[in-house]
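Subject: Protein record for review, amino acid sequence with backbone structure tokens
Why sent: The fold of this protein is of interest and is recorded here as tokens.
Notation: Tokens come from a learned vocabulary of local backbone shapes, not from coordinates.
Attached in line: The record itself begins immediately under this heading.
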Amino acid sequence: MSLRRQLKKFPDVFARKVAKALHDTLVEAGESIANDFAESVSEASLEEIVELRGGGRHKTKTRRKAAKRVKRAAKATRLPRRSAAQIAKAGVRVARLLKKHPDGLRSEGIRSALRIETRALPRILREAVAAKKIVVLSGNKRSTTYGAATRKAAKSAKKK
């Protein structure tokens, strides 16, 4: 083989050898770290591990997360029965909120601001519109924008 041809192949051969050596070094280092960690964990007591982790503060966070999960799971059940007075009271809360927002809000905004469960909101809105506490400014179904029942809002709702 001529010297010129050998020199052309040199970068490829060199790169393969360097890549292989780098890979072997990284695998060896990873195995070493894993072995050292496993050894130190097996030698440490549970109290030492908890102390290093933050002294058990994480338990409260875990409990909160678990409580949220349970709360979400509980939401999958039927809604509790509500009296007409309770629904009317929620309608008044919605009307008060909408007075603070002259451009109106969609149901998602109302729900998040008042922290009302998603499945409970349609009935509250329907009853409040029927009682003329709030008005439909525009839209249908999910894109409906609701506003406070003022003269100006009532006029703009009639135009649309």
